[in-house]
Amino acid sequence: MSTSDDLYAVADFCLIPMGTGEPSVAGYIAECQRVLEKSGLKYKVGYGTNLEGPWSEVSKAIHDCHLAVHAQGAPRIATDIRIGTRTDREIAPGTGNEAKVKRVEDILSK
């Protein structure tokens, strides 16, 4: 583990705006993506969002997404979050999710 007390976190979260009166939430998710872009953390949006970096920065980015989506008019937000950390080896910043996918692809290619 690094000398920092801040764990490196690989997170997957799904932010769900509620009570918007609209069937589409794309505009709210786009606003969250703007927040993530400004955070400087590595992320990938799909059916949910993968986000990685120091634990405190990851949790702040999710918090800031909530603030931004509420500011867009969503009165309620539900968010499911899964966060993984490990201390048995160093993870180069920005490679946590890619390394997991590559490992599975390597196994499948054998």
From TrEMBL:
<dbReference type="InterPro" id="IPR029756">
    <property type="entry name" value="MTH1187/YkoF-like"/>
</dbReference>
<dbReference type="InterPro" id="IPR002767">
    <property type="entry name" value="Thiamine_BP"/>
</dbReference>
<comment type="similarity">
    <text>Belongs to the UPF0045 family.</text>
</comment>
<protein>
    <recommendedName>
        <fullName>Thiamine-binding protein domain-containing protein</fullName>
    </recommendedName>
</protein>
<dbReference type="Pfam" id="PF01910">
    <property type="entry name" value="Thiamine_BP"/>
</dbReference>
<feature type="domain" description="Thiamine-binding protein">
    <location>
        <begin position="11"/>
        <end position="104"/>
    </location>
</feature>
<dbReference type="InterPro" id="IPR051614">
    <property type="entry name" value="UPF0045_domain"/>
</dbReference>
